[in-house]
Write a structure and sequence with these properties.
Number of strands: 9
Order of helices and strands: EHEEEHEHEHHEHEE
Shape: globular
Bound molecules: magnesium ion
Structural class: alpha/beta
Helix content: 25-40%
Largest sheet: 7 strands, mixed
Distance between the termini: 41 Å
Radius of gyration: 16 Å
Strand order of the largest sheet: 1-8-9-7-2-5-6
CATH class: Alpha Beta
Number of helices: 6
CATH superfamily: HAD superfamily/HAD-like
Number of domains: 1
Oligomer: single chain
CATH topology: Rossmann fold
Strand content: 15-25%
Length: 207
């Protein structure tokens, strides 16, 4: 598994605009079908899935407009059943918000209400870092991913999110050129040939 040729595929360029429409989630389903096949291949190739990790973003990924994302939830459950460790990395600030709400507790409660509180770890962005970076969470998300990888010794098997910074190592050099032309309303699959690494870049546009 030493190849590094980039694979990059656009699943769709015109997802449904209204959140909750079947067309929006259909495109997520298309991407998750590929991810499901990818995991089946990993297993067939002898990978011990219980030693590997999947990273999910929260906003506009597993939660869309206060609602859970139905196909993502099914995929979440499947990952758990396969024994994969499920991590959440979000740029939500870890602290008390201006309205007095503890963001971590609110986020945990929200995930609980979605039936998705059985994660292995959840990382919120330290509030001081959140203020300092002015919403650019890329460095933070990379640092957390490196921490997880250092702990397991394996690359992250799968990354799912609506931002390029959610793609981990796949958001780096191999895809920079193509990213210039990317459609923020599209769903993309990212991977490196001959590696067990897959990224699903979901649409950013929710208007
Ligand atoms: Mg997001």
């Amino acid at each position: 598994m030493g190849g590094t040729a980039a694979r990059f595929a656009c699943v769709t360029t015109s997802p449904g605009k209204a959140v909750g429409t079947s067309s929006r989630f259909d495109h997520v389903c298309d991407a998750l079908d590929v991810a499901t096949q990818f995991l089946a291949r990993c297993k067939a190739d002898g990978l011990d899935l219980t030693a590997h990790d999947v990273v999910f973003d929260i906003d506009d990924t597993i939660i869309c407009d206060e609602l859970h994302n139905p196909p993502l939830k099914l995929f979440w459950v499947m990952c758990g059943a396969l024994g994969l460790k499920r991590h959440i990395i979000t740029a939500r600030p870890d602290g008390v918000l201006d309205n007095g709400v503890c963001n971590r507790a609110a986020t945990m409660s929200h995930l609980q209400s979605c039936g998705m509180a059985d994660y292995d770890s959840m990382y919120l962005m330290p509030q001081c870092e959140y203020k300092a970076c002015r919403g650019n969470a890329s460095a933070y998300k990379h640092a957390v991913r490196r921490q997880i990888i250092k702990g397991t010794g394996f690359p992250l098997l799968l990354n799912i999110g609506d931002q390029w910074s959610d793609m981990g190592e796949l958001s780096d050099r191999q895809f920079m050129a193509r990213r210039r032309d990317h459609d923020p309303a599209a769903t993309y699959l990212c991977g490196l040939d001959d590696t067990y690494v897959l990224g699903i870049k979901l649409p950013e546009d929710r208007d």
